[in-house]
Amino acid sequence: MRIILVFIEAPDPFGNAAARWYYVLLKGLVARGHTVTAFATSSRPSESEAALRHFPRVDYDLRIYPTLTTKSLSSKLNTLRKPFSYLFSPAMQIDIEAELAKGFDVLHLEHLWSGWLGLEQAQRSVLHIHYLFGIDLAGQAGAQAMSPLLRRLVLGAEKRLLRRYPNISTLTDRLATEIAAISPHSQVDVVPLGLEPSFYLFETRPTLIRRPTVGLIGTFTWQPNFVAAERLFTRLWPEISRQVPEARIQAVGHNATTALAQFASTPGLEIHADVPDPIPYFQSTDVLLYAPPQGSGMKVKVVEAFALGTPVVTNAEGVEGLPAEDGVHAGIANDDAGLIARTVALLRNADRRHSQRIAARRLFETVCAPRVTVDAIEKIHDRVAKAR
After folding, report:
1. Could you give the 3-state DSSP secondary structure of residue 2?
2. CA dist., res. 17 & res. 32, Å (int)
């Protein structure tokens, strides 16, 4: 097939969650023999350069455009009508239209806002949704909350865009149910987040040569992560450290020092901000304890922990999209007492940690490996192309 891809990040196996999936998708579709042109917008030149190294022009048609940082008056006004459409520069939009005019089978649009670019080709498009603002904004409050005006614009635009696309794919059953309620005429398919297993080295049984460690890894400017950290430091950690006094706790992620400043005096806490590579911190964590209050879609840090063999304790929100069983693949509980008990049990029992990490890695390879996720996308593309 002739496939046009549109990304909101440069595809990079070491980038954020979206960039890692884009890497898998572009690699996978080209490897299956399709003719693919990929368009991406990126705000960081270093990420663009990294992506182009992974996708040399001799083998891939990847075109990356800088995200506009200075908005003109017309783009600001257009944002009122089409929120976040400024992400896509005029040059990028012109080139996409030119490529579509040459002929194509499927236009694949990643993330809700890329839907602005495919409205005239909606019948021949697939809109892939990673999360829903209607869910994520429901509980936002305080300094990190979106302004009332922008909130109304975003929620209205989300519904309008979803209703324009007859073919939508998304990461979880929960998202699919919500999308179907918004756009009943759309066919909604579920395709879990795909990550490349070879980038996640799995040690069969690591040797513990340090204090048992509880960890939380994520971007703490995202409110669900911040609230999960607040719960951990104020409600969970005091009792865990009482029962396992030799344990320590570490928080790792973007803007961690600033965002978590109010918790810096927590006994046993180490904060590591803006680390170049989080994987060593996964490997030095005995239990990833992450219980977000809400946040739709798959939680990439949980998926990565499964891939790396870092034992996880979380709640139902944390394992959304993963058919994980409590006590098998992860410790899963929604109440404080259950989260504490599962964490303490894992810290005290190396065999339990070992069996859980083996099962979690197997689940990751079954659900999130490229052979599963890209195959599913390919089948959707085939259906859309044949429907023409």
Report:
1. strand
2. 23
Indicate the Cα dihedral angle 220, 222, 223, 226, nearest 10°: -10
Pair 62, 11: CB distance under 8 Å: yes
State the fold for domain 198-367. Rossmann fold (3.40.50)
The C-alpha atoms of residue 133 and residue 111 are separated, in whole angstroms, by: 12
Closest CA to 158 of 120, 113, 121: 113
Spatial distance between the Cα atoms of 283 and 252, rounded to a whole number of angstroms: 12
CA distance 233 to 321: 26
Q: What is the pLDDT of residues 319-353, one digit of tens each?
A: 999 999 999 999 999 999 999 999 999 999 999 99
For residue 128, the number of C-alpha atoms closer than 13 Å in the C-beta half-sphere is: 26
Q: Is the pTM of this model over 0.85?
A: yes
- Same topology, domains 2-194+369-387 and 198-367? Answer is yes
- Relative to beta strand 269-273, strand 312-314 is unpaired
Sequence-ordered strand ranges (E) for 76-129: 106-110, 125-129
Helix, strand or coil, per DSSP, at residue 188: strand
- Fold for the domain defined by 2-194+369-387: Rossmann fold (3.40.50)
